[in-house]
Specification:
The protein has one domain: 2-Layer Sandwich (STM4215-like), CATH 3.30.2000. Helices cover 23% and strands 35% of the residues. Strands 1, 2, 3, 4, 5 and 6 form a 6-stranded mixed beta sheet that branches. A hairpin with a 3-residue loop joins strand 2 and strand 3. The protein starts with 5 loop residues before the first helix and ends in a 16-residue tail after the last helix. The relative contact order is 0.19.
Amino acid sequence: MFLKDIRRILSVRLYEMLSTMDIPVYNVLPTDVDNPFIYVGVIVTTDYANKCEFIIEGTVDIEMHTGANGWNGSMEQLYEYLFEMKALLQYEKGSVITLGTSHEMNLWKIVADTGITVYDPINRLMSSTVTYEFKIVQKIGYEDRVKEDGGVVEAISCIPIQLR
């Protein structure tokens, strides 16, 4: 598995990590949910490679919304959801996201946090966005790299399987 699959895998793993909360978690932004929910938002990435590793750097937005009908509960409860969401995604937990046997997450940190923003005070519609920055490295062998680039490895006995 190469890093072209990482966006999908990262989205699924974040969904799994957050699904232990008391509010629903979605990978696709819903439009008709009445209750508070969390949305694993846009994952923006930059991919690059050298002879022995593929690297992907990017950001992912994790959003919390109060739902279509607004929020009737306390602000304290909303902040508890927000704090629980961030606690589930702490670096210690984020750094061990299972992405594959040869993948390593080198960076996972919060780069932006809007807090709870009220965008419709009459209907009590609120949202929060926490943006995480990440860097994932996949170590590969030279043979894998040549094949991924569309090349043909001719003298396989002369080419080291792993470069470290």
